[in-house]
Amino acid sequence: MSGFNGLAVPGPTNMPFAIRQAMDVALEDHRAPDFPEFTLPLLADLKRIFRTTTGQIFVFPSTGTGGWEAAIANSLSPGDHVLTSVFGQFSSLWVDLCRRFGLEVDAVEVPWGEGVPLDVYEQKLRADKTHRIKAVLACHNETATGVTSDIAGVRRILDAVGHPALLMVDGVSSIGALDFRMEAWAVDLAVCGSQKGFMLPAGLAIVGVSEKALAARKTAKLPRCFFDFEDMIRANKDGYFPYTPAATMLRGLRASIDMLLAEGLDEVCARHHRLATGVRKAVDAWGLRLCARHPKWNSDTVSAVVVPDGFDANAVIKTAYRTYNLSLGGGLAKVAGKVFRIGHLGYLNELMVLAAVGGAEMAMLDCGIAIEPGSGVGAAIEHYSKTAKRPAVTKAA
User: Fold this and answer.
1) Domains and their CATH numbers in the chain
2) How many other CB atoms are there within 10 angstroms of residue 130's CB atom?
3) Is the pLDDT score of 395 beyond 80?
4) What is the spatial distance between Cα 88 and Cα 274, in angstroms, rounded to a whole number?
5) Euclidean distance between CA atoms 227 and 229, whole angstroms
6) Residue 394 reports pLDDT greater than 90
7) Fewest 10 Å CB contacts: which of 26, 34, 63, 363?
8) Which residues are 189's β-sheet partners?
9) Distance between CA 148 and CA 158 in Å, rounded?
């Protein structure tokens, strides 16, 4: 089929040409004496993306799952208690990882479509007078359901009850796209991957670690080797890595950071919100609803669209791919067959979103879902047209 493939999944995201070009280089010596001239500024600028001055950022050749493992293994010990909540596939997988490490997990079950239950967290933390809970886990953006949670709210609760637990955040589909403030929210361990907001291929786990979490590693007794912060600290201070790094990916990461900082982090967040709002207006125009149960939960990086009863979301996804060359995200676990997901994060503009909305619209019509042709696209166009930043036009002399 001619033309570009439409990539509208919530990761991997579209990769800018500048990043592809940055990685199209000859392989290099990662032990060369001038390698630190590249890596030290890279690691320093990653702190700007996480919005921390006191924390440290580690980059592992891995994925977000490896980042989760690094965060857990370097800060906790067998039998430690952690508090978390389950409201989607990825928050569920983090619980599974904790249990495999032999941690005692209090996993609060939340209806899929909602996010971190602040009221329940407060009750449990306030009741924990002996501070048995060593870590509080929160998924900032649950990709499976299109739900964003209030991480600042979790920090306010910890501070209000005077609880010393570490705050661990899954920022895989939020960091680099949504407002994330590691230092202001006193996040102790923040995990993300390269294939979403950083606009790279999958292959890097990027982990932000606070001074408090760095201190916790000295008493943590879970087994670790490949993901040991200690090895990273020793090597990174001189600009090197304890094993062969994914140097080509690091070159792409440099280009990604440059793009994010050039646009401005606040502007990046505003762009994502504007594009996401257009998708939500399209869903309303179709007469459908999101998996997110209330606007306060709406994610600005992915929308999970619920298909009407009697229809299979997987049929919409297959039709979009086979007929229109468009990749939409599938429903996972509890919402499999019930939702399709439109990813709207990373290297994206109005035209790219409209293509995804139009492709989803055609696929739904092909599957017999009763929507008005052009309704969603029209609603998104109206929003983008009204909110566009137009350059000043000067009259000809």
Assistant:
1) 6-12+265-387 (3.90.1150.10), 17-262 (3.40.640.10)
2) 5
3) no
4) 25
5) 6
6) no
7) 26
8) 168, 209
9) 19
